[in-house]
């Protein structure tokens, strides 16, 4: 499992080979960064990620604004942009897909959840998800495409199932990627076949002679038919790990203690803000670890994800509490000030009892909502943010800094980077 510590994140940063990443990132055994759990939970910011990777590269392999890593980090920035403008609308189909919403079933089939569909690519993906809490971007796309277009499962059901098991589960990136696959936020459904799997995955994932071993034209017709494909589930699979709405007892979260907070300055660390504490906090600031019950009743997590969050939170404070939003409001009333780092996963609740500082951003804010990644990328490229320019490797003597003009289109560029990066 992924270690939740800042030291582990920094070691992973230093080990990234940017050249190998650009060349092999689409392969399941490619040189992906593996940084997404620390990014999702705010242990690392995007400027820290890019700056750390850039600093670790050889002098003759500096990262500029057109490097694939910058482009892929942009997908996370774009998804957050859409969520900030569309709000809860991203939880509904942004437009109709190949079939009306009512044509899709609710609930992920048991044979998928137990990794016994008989399709190696799907069963391997589910087993990997449960065993590691992570999943390569390509595998996420395949799993989503199979569920939506072949099994006729509504994308929202698949998105809610997957996010609970992912260490890096982020509502914007996860749900909007499912919508992209489903064709409810894009112009056409994302489809894959056995040849695509053979091109990007190890042999154990290959699925020749299955329902996937057909041309794309046939898959497109299947996606537009209301009937799910016939299945022959295997008799045995794996047990799905339980999803928990509260931290395991071993992580020692307790109920709030109002007496500790009277007249004090409070800094809240929450599951999406687990970076180092601000250097300017007064020495007597009380640092609290916050879990809001309603948030996790809505989207429970695997024990592995709770462990990741709980261990990192314990590095930051001995005071880790869980309570309802109402109880948090009451217990924090006696504090002199309450501050935290804002995050869309928790913002509505935080706004009722804390002052939120914006998280450090890599890309400039775009005020007008963008309907596509390319539109958003064009706008952020016009005036790169100081954070982006600072994160990139410095130019060679006498050479101007490169812009981040939209890179030339390539066959793989329209695919979203679900795992960032």
Automatic annotation (TrEMBL):
What EC number(s) does the entry state? 4.1.99.3
Cofactors named for this entry: FAD
What are the binding positions for FAD in this chain?
21, 72-79, 168-170
Q: Which segments does the entry list as coiled coil? A: none
Which residue range or ranges hold the Cryptochrome/DNA photolyase FAD-binding domain? 72-192
Q: Which GO terms describe its cellular component?
A: cytoplasm
Q: Which InterPro entries match?
A: Crypto/Photolyase_FAD-like_sf, Cryptochr/Photolyase_FAD-bd, Cryptochrome/DNA_photolyase_1
Which Pfam families does this UniProt record tie to the protein?
FAD_binding_7
What the record notes about the co-factor is: Binds 1 FAD per subunit.
Q: Where is the composition biased (Basic and acidic residues)?
A: 398-415
Gene3D superfamilies, A to Z: 1.25.40.80, DNA Cyclobutane Dipyrimidine Photolyase, subunit A, domain 3
User: Care to name a GO molecular-function term for this sequence?
Assistant: FAD binding
Annotated region Disordered: where? 391-421
Example GO BP: circadian regulation of gene expression
Q: Which family does it belong to?
A: Belongs to the DNA photolyase family.
Q: Which PANTHER family match?
A: CRYPTOCHROME, SI:CH1073-390K14.1
Protein name (database record): Deoxyribodipyrimidine photo-lyase
- State the organism named in the record: Sphaerotilus montanus
